[in-house]
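Notebook, p. 212. Picked up where the previous page left off. The plan for this session was modest: take the two constructs that came back from the sequencing core last week, fold each one, and keep the raw output in the notebook itself so nobody has to go hunting through shared drives later. Recording the first one now, exactly as returned: residue sequence, then the structure token string.
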Amino acid sequence: MNVECTRLPSGLTVVTETMPHLESVALGTWIKSGSRNETEAEHGIAHLLEHMAFKGTNQRTARQIAEQIENVGGELNAATSTETTSYYARVLKDTVPLAVDILADILTDSVFDEDELEREKHVILQEIGAADDTPDDVVFDRFSERAFQDQTIGRSILGTPETVQSFSSDQIRAYLSRNYTTDRMFVVAAGAVDHDAFVKQVEQRFASLPTKPSATPVMDTARYTGGEARVERDLMDTQVLLGFEGKAYHMRDFYCSQILANILGGGMSSRLFQEVREIRGLCYSVYAFHWGFSDTGIFGIHAATGGENLPELVPVIIDELRKASEHIDQQEIDRSRAQIRAQLLMGQESPAARAGQIARQMMLYGRTIPNQEMMERLAGITTERLTDLAGRLFFDTAPTLSAIGPVDHLVPLDDIREALSTPPSGIRQAVG
């Protein structure tokens, strides 16, 4: 990797990876702050700020921001997650200074005009409505709410109609000054970029960023609770999500959990896809995933199926969890490692994917992680470690169940709890 990192006197970190065979550059600013850094009264403000950053500065109107980046064939966008926010662009190499200038402008000199704010609130209210009309979104939002009850980490990123409508420009500025500081921000570029020139551009244009927060940033320690959310709706199918507390990024079992999720439901050769979909035909979609956060995680299995298959679906999934706690083949580990290696290498062919990966590693670990080091970590994962982890994940922690659609025939949560507290040999009898 041709990665260079410079920490400016202000505390802002600048990282580049030069990919000389390209003609374009993916660049952006990543902030170690997201919806989890909101107070109770700020629910949804991180996402609203992301929208408002594009709505005008003291130097550019909202239209000028859009036109200037598109006049040179570039793209500009942003995203808010639970623990991070990003503002990023993709441009040709000779227009990098313009992209840096625009990104710095929206992050240091936005005006948060009241008329624009009211219009953007209306846009987000439509976004909230659209999410509520999308079963895939609803099942995940309700899952998070039950997995982390009454906590910021369990709340939807979009906020509620009531909170969004209540926000003022001053509240947005307060959140901004508390979280968008140089010690929490990383400017990253990948592609046809010259590190020294890029650092100079960033240092000049981002000089006005505050180095210290106006108040102590907010983020409570996560507390996984588990629980259940069933939403009865007249739909053609039912979305079901069964999950458990996963592992934080820095925990020893994080990469082991990634491998386990891949083996269980990471592709067409995975156990759940083969057993639940291909052999039994109990659903049209099934996969497993593991999400890591700074102090906790989520291990989940998502399935979409017709209501007539619900009585059998969850018992079969639990049976596969039991089997994973009893035996895993070395061949399955090798296949999963090969898939992860391929994803890493394919990601390096995309400057946008590479910039995002670098930013995440810097925020989580304070450095970039070479692919070789990543593969060495994965090489230490054994069948014994995986079966031990499966036993602890699935049978030692409280389950969380979320479902939307015709849910009448879905197995009761108490039956699932009983099955998961039963020695592995008795699981099918407990829920069958």
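Okay, moving on. Second construct, recorded in the same format:
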Amino acid sequence: MYHRIKGTRDILPDEIYQWHYVEDKIRNYLERCNYQEIRTPLFEVTELFARGIGTDTDVVSKEMYTFQDKGHTSLTLRPELTAPVLRAYLQNNLNQLSPITKLYYLGPLFRQERPQKGRLRQFNQFGFEIIGSEHPEADAEVIQAVFAIYQELGINDLKVRINSIGSRDSRRYYLDLLHKTLAPHAGEFCATCQQRLERNILRLFDCKLESCQALLDQYAPLILDHLSNADILHFEEVQALLTAAFVPFEIDQKLVRGLDYYTRTTFEITSSLLGSQDAICGGGRYDHLAEDLDGPPTPAVGVASGMERLLMILNEIQAIPQPTVDLIYIAILGDNARQAAFQLVSRLRAQGYAVEMDFMRRSLKAQMREAGKKGADWVIIIGEDEIQKDQLIVKNMTSGEQKNLQLSRATEQLETILR
């Protein structure tokens, strides 16, 4: 027997309604905000992610599923969606349609990391981007919109953490200062952080070890103290707009995010219902990613949220209602009734009804039992005697009431009963 690959999971029929419910809520809210859905390929050339995300990030250096096709081109299953979305934006000249482009997506991603609760090797995200605006109102809308989506889904246990890592010029100065300050203490950090100190120093703030965080608290300068005046003004305006929209937030000066393309605003939303790995979404501004991908200067800001982690929270608080479908079950007695029943099934479905019929040629008692298991609201019984009399029997499974209708006028007469 074959088994699914480690770090993947099957989404079975008894839970897929949860995904549909959440996806519908997301689409509904984002389309109210005038975002349009985009779908990109599951794989891209590897260089897109190496240049876009950064070769020294954990995603690119450790976690990507990369392979060569028959033409010896290096391809990668997408580990994130911002770079593919911006590639599609540039390649398809979407900037010519409007100065501002608002896009959203839902779909699977792939990272070869250690599977754990809410974190898989094939996982799903929803996210959205505002491309074309350098102004803080775009940052604020992205944060406000994802916060509002969670609220509409019924999640109230949320913490919004924001920071600014400055423009590239501000960050370049800060990184030099950070390295000079921490280099004398390099031996006190863990082995991973010692590598990060030389290769990608901002990742030090991501370390989970309390000892490394204590060293940062003791020695590291904070980036908010080294921003340009323009960066400070931008961050202050983001805060003012979030306050105006009643979005509660706190400033986290260690929040730097895990991808190299971020500039200025970074943010995460967390929930204590997820335990120690409490991030439900993250995002920020990436004003230079288009240039890194050989496009024109194009400011942008976006967010991505893990669907599996979101569903964990919604199941914890029991926020997803059970689906309700008005189901009609057609029970068949005798070979001659089967064709008439199948014709009726087709006609009722064409009128918009949910209809099921017996495929096992069982007894009427067994078919009624099956209708009960499926939660049918109505059972229509068609037998050979009924066909000869041009009749069918309709039974209300809640009240037990039965009626005889004319088979040749079934859809017309059923309309008055079923509606």
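Notes on construct two before I forget. The domain at 13-167+228-316 is CATH 3.30.930.10 (BirA Bifunctional Protein; domain 2).
Flagging for discussion at group meeting.
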